[in-house]
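Figure 6 in text form: structure in, sequence out.
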């Protein structure tokens, strides 16, 4: 069994993956280009927020099974877990994957397993990664075993899901799939499904594209409901009574480095064959503008009163602001002349491009409150803070607030947007 693993990329996936391998008994070398990340980890401090990460990190460090550094070293297996951002034209930027692959070339030896966990467009393993290894003189599939094994975890539950979730292992060839699967069998309790690399790449992308398309359907319903004077939330609740219907909930858009990105990797490779996927992306990308349009119905930018924004992350109870539609909402509001006071208890001020305020500071004198993430803290909001608002009007795009009638706040969500301007201050619906 492979006993030493080198993980290139120590972000939201790479670091937890490193720690899980270390906990399973492997010697793990974590590699990152950031000196700050490496120094922090070697000093005993993790740089990401995730349930259970501190405990696991402390455990494996105490047993000397994990270390971080800026360059790779020889190992039995190499895992590439670097970001794959999207270019301005929505094509995949594979620079990090290419750089990571090249960085391990001096340390490869016959029999090594190379696994790409980064989310990548179809055929990237075969057409990009394999040629780099081949140009270095290796026979891919016989001397070096290459596979794509996409991560499929939920932030907040990463350590549980890395172990319990089913795992797709897509090999460059069948023996590569077998070698990679043996590695994951050391800690994965879920089913390990073997296939070829292109199928694994496409499966990961389709998992998130499926969700993107269905979220777009809910968001389009919300837009149509405003025009038709319909309660979209009630419609969703009623439709979901059907045993084979499960509509999602509308929101301010789609974010994170999965659902908001992965469909583009398929569209890029076959734009003529993916009109549904492209349209879903357009719909979800339009939601920040739709939210701002609703704010404009509530509050004029020329009244010189601030707009409070609660929640900058792409989903509730995480610290991740990558591709967050909330940031797009804030930027659009500012472009249209609004003063924005943003609050998010989960985001570290040093990691945020927008100045953050306390809840009290954000609400003081505000003309309205816009909720863009369903953090638990917002559901338990101290209603006394609402009394400090100039006008207690709330646009709750996540339908997560629990506001009583005593606050005298007017609350709008996707159930009653068609009533903006018609309601007297009432309790949340």
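Output sequence:
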């Amino acid at each position: 069994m492979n006993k030493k693993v080198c993980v290139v990329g120590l972000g939201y996936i790479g670091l937890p993956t490193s720690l899980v391998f270390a906990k399973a008994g492997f010697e793990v070398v974590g590699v990152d280009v950031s000196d700050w990340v490496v120094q922090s980890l070697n000093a005993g401090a993790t740089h990401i927020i995730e349930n259970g990460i501190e405990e696991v990190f402390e455990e494996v460090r105490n047993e000397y099974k994990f270390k971080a550094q800026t360059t790779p070293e020889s190992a039995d297996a190499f895992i590439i877990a670097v970001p794959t951002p999207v270019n301005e034209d929505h094509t995949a930027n594979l620079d990090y994957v290419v750089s990571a692959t090249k960085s391990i070339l001096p340390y490869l030896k016959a029999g090594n397993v190379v696994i790409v966990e980064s989310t990548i467009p179809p055929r990237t393993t075969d057409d990009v990664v394999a040629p780099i290894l081949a140009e270095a003189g290796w026979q891919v599939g016989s001397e070096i075993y290459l596979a794509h094994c996409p991560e499929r975890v939920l932030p907040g539950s990463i350590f549980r899901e890395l172990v319990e979730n089913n795992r797709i292992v897509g090999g460059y060839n069948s023996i590569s799939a077998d070698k990679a699967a043996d590695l994951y069998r050391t800690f994965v309790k879920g089913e390990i499904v073997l296939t070829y690399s292109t199928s694994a790449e496409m499966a990961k992308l389709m998992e998130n594209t499926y969700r993107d398309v269905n979220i777009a359907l809910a968001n389009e319903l919300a837009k149509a409901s405003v025009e038709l004077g319909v309660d979209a939330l009630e419609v969703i609740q009623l439709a979901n009574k059907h045993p084979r219907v499960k509509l999602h909930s509308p929101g301010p858009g789609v974010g994170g480095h999965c659902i908001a990105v992965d469909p583009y990797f398929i569209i890029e490779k076959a734009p003529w064959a993916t009109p549904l996927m492209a349209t879903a992306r357009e719909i979800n990308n339009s939601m920040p503008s739709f939210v701002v349009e609703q704010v404009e119905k509530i509050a004029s930018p020329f009244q010189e009163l601030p707009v409070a924004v609660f929640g900058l992350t792409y989903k509730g109870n995480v610290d991740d602001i990558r591709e967050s539609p909330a940031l797009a909402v804030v930027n659009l509001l500012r472009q249209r002349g609004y003063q924005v006071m943003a609050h998010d208890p989960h985001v570290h001020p040093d990691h945020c491009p927008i100045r953050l305020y306390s809840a009290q500071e954000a609400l003081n004198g505000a003309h309205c409150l816009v909720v863009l993430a369903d953090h638990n803290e917002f559901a338990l909001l101290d209603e006394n803070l609402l009394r400090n608002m100039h006008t207690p009007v709330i646009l709750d795009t996540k339908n997560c607030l629990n506001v009583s009638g005593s606050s005298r706040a007017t609350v709008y969500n996707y159930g009653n947007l068609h009533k903006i301007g018609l309601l007297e201050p009432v309790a949340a619906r």
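Caption detail: The CA atoms of residues 172 and 246 lie 36 Å apart.
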